Amino acid sequence: MRIHPLDLAIVIAYLLAVTALGMRFRRKKTDLARTDRETASLDYFLGGRTAPWWALALSIVATETSTLTIIGTPAIAYAGNLTFVQLVIGYLIGRILIVIILLPGYFRGQFLTAYALIEKRFGEKMRAVAASTFLITRAIAEGVRVSAIALVVSVVLGTSERLAVIIVIALTILYTFEGGMKAVIWTDVAQLLLYMTGSAVTFWVLLHKIPGGWTEITQVAASAGHKLQVFDFSWNLATKYTFWSGLIGGAFLTMASHGTDQTIVQRLLAAKNEKDSRRALLTSGVIVLVQFTIFLLIGVLLYVFAQHAPLLASGERADRILPLFLVREMPTGLAGLLLASIVAVAMSNASGSLNSLAASSVLDFAKLRGRSADSAQFLRLSRRMTLVWGAVLMAFGMVSWGPLLETGLTVASLPFGSLLGLFLLGTLNRRATAAGALTGMFAGLATILAVWLYTPTAYTWYVLIGSTITFVVGAIASEL
Length: 480
What we know:
Largest sheet: none
Structural class: mainly alpha
């Protein structure tokens, strides 16, 4: 089923408008030919550290929220219950730990990437190891996110999934290539406001389309068993969403994703000072909690609505439930706005990842760092790396993955543990050595791969296990 031409026009107008917004920042850039390379790096990769803290907070939320989040989170509640919110509570705890443990070190060194901290502590080779871990992990995880674009567009337009990926990523590359980090931050702000408005409107429309309103929702959800369950206090490690895996596993997952992943750390480093960075990170946690609560409730409402008007055919993936509702049930015009908001998230994620992948590639490897003598050449190299990573994301976006949200989180969780363990080892253990840290990273990664392959342990525990093994083995190896 294809959408109304008016809705299609709205989606296309959005794509062109957000691309134009991002490209505006090219004209606002200083004459890089007359500045040094450090200024060029600061401008292109950190936006000159001029963005206000509230814009960075919104950019952080937009970056960690993807198309697979918007369509995958309601699908989790549609097929299950609300226990995913326990993981989001852990996200808040993780942010507090980052502020206490990792953030001060970043600002003491005035670093441009997260992995410069590793070089200061363990040397250049370990910086390259950490950066390589990030590049591989982020490229694959972002590929899962990009594939979600194809799923939405295939529902909306009935067109080729590959063509959908190419169009959206090509436009995203264009404004990221031209405008750098400033373009990324401010388009993130616009896109977040759009998709949060769209989510609120979707909730309101669903609520009014269900006969009997909230009373009917609670009755149907209650008859379905534990549809409205929020907390699960069991200690079963194979259960993905329990109170303990949420608080502990979610905290460690966030420490890794927001404290060691260049995509988020780049936004923290783009703040004017440590105080603004701290405010942006903590505020983003509150926004994320509200956002995920809305997404999960939309999933419950979709379940109740489907009891009156079925949306999914037998055997169809639950991830298709929200796009199908938007296409079939939303009023003309409003459907286009909401579908544009989903595409907004996809572009926001891709732009942030492109800029961060290019930043790490250029700034974290000695051969690239020493390659350009002046800022103009350096900027050209940075832009070329943006194009290279854009092609990589397109390729990964065309791969067929499993359930979108959980696949993305699992892919990220596998190497995140060893990366977080490395940062904690360097920050908390003054006696740790580079050789010990590398041994710990290999041990942590090997352990978590074995856990993933040979045990039923849920992915929510992966980062905790990986970081603990990395830290302990690294500390022991350093002493030996």
